[in-house]
Design brief:
single chain; mainly alpha
């Protein structure tokens, strides 16, 4: 996913395989610049993980599916931000 995307908070970046094995975190691959090279690099890391570290790849998908991406959850998060902003003005 292109990182500046509005949905980027739903994806926790995995820059390399060692991050997966050391921290068991991440839900996908992001890229900072919306270019063919950025997309290619992210896709390369995803395919490489799939081919060489299949169990880790499967765990990435499981972590992604465990997230609460419902509208109710999103609305709660936005409400918290708006309430906090109310007291900053």
């Amino acid at each position: 996913m292109h990182h500046p995307n509005i949905l980027s908070h739903t994806l926790s970046h995995i820059p390399s395989h060692h991050i997966i094995t050391l921290h068991n975190t991440g839900t996908g691959w992001t890229f900072s610049f919306a270019t063919a090279d950025g997309l290619r690099d992210a896709a390369y890391h995803a395919v490489n993980t799939y081919r060489q570290y299949r169990e880790d790849f499967d765990n990435i998908g499981k972590r992604g599916m465990q997230q609460d991406l419902s509208w109710d959850h999103a609305a709660t998060l936005y409400e918290e931000v708006l309430v906090a902003a109310k007291y900053v003005w």
